[in-house]
Amino acid sequence: MIRALTVRQPWAAAITYADKRVENRVWPTSHRGPILIHSSATVDQTARRHAPLAAVVRGLQLDLKAVVAVARITGCHEDDGECTPWSMAGHFHWSLDSVTALPLPVPWDGAQRLWTPPAELLETVRMQLDDDTAANLADDREWRGQR
Known about the structure:
Radius of gyration: 15 Å
Structural class: alpha+beta
């Protein structure tokens, strides 16, 4: 099943356009598989203290309330030290791969935690993906809401 995760900017941009392949959460997930990366309606004002982030997002438009990328969750583990420069101590680290930025962010209201995107949103996102990317992320029936 395809899920969606709302992430505050500029962290969503770091996943979408940089090498941030870990999402830090205070709760674990058992979900493995495709995910939509949705940017929240708010910006994390404390994020600019993270030097690598400031360098990455400088000059980028930070879209709000929109699906900005697709990815795959491949794992989740408790904090084991700094597994990546993007990892935060005391958080669960969700491992991401196959991150693909959407050519045009899709405006949409999100939700907290993992949420299930409606078929209309999935179809709009799917239209922006080439067949190989869609196949790599999920069975095509999932994109069409048939599961």
